[in-house]
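thought: fold this chain, then report.
action: predict
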Amino acid sequence: MLENILVVDNDVSARDTFYEILSSIGYKVTCVPNGKEALIRMERERHALVILDSQIPHLDCYETMRKIRELDSEISFVLLTKDAPLAEEKAKAMSLGAFAVIKKDFSTHVMMKEILGILKESLREFKKESRHGDILVVDDEQDIRNMICNFLSIKGYNVVSAASGEEALLKIKTNKPQLVLCDIRMPGMDGLMVLKKILDIDPSIKVVMLSAIQDEDVLTEASKEGAVDYLIKPCSLMKLDALVLSILPH
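observation:
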């Protein structure tokens, strides 16, 4: 197997545990105590995944992720948090390439089961693919836009983004996307207005609505207006992947 895994954690005991478990099942594991050491390692060798504790000293976890991504734009992370992660933490981490944000807890099997599941089933999904299709991502939250755009770009799609409905309509005319992922609640023109105007411009465009809350009335209205589906934010990247695959031609 020998997939390279980088563990960044200031806790010696945690590093030892990760090393022992992951090495025993065939992974090549490198452990470092902080972000600065992680960057040195990243310059020397390529890794399939970085397991990163959110409480590392010196460089904080998000800055570490940003700098690592500058060295390897395709790298993915698992971010470990002291407490159950908040939606905002997940969105920010995923916008920087996190595959998952998990509560750090060695007292049960849950954390390691999730990490091992990612390593066994999902790492290959993040390797650069050569899919085809033009996608527009519309969301006023930069972290959400970045997360979705980074993921879909890695999959091989041609992705552009817009921070507002007004900007989206301009890009619809110039970029002619096949699929639009559009947030429902945005300042100015809301997602339902954008949906209607997109389909007025080109009824062949497929539109998927994004919503932070599952408001059935709004989602029903979106469906009546022509939306093909919806996702709840922060969305599972695997659900996003499956949905896009089902909509765009292979």
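thought: worth noting. The beta strands are 4-8, 28-32, 49-53, 77-81, 98-103, 134-138, 158-162, 179-183, 206-211, 229-232.
final: tokens above.
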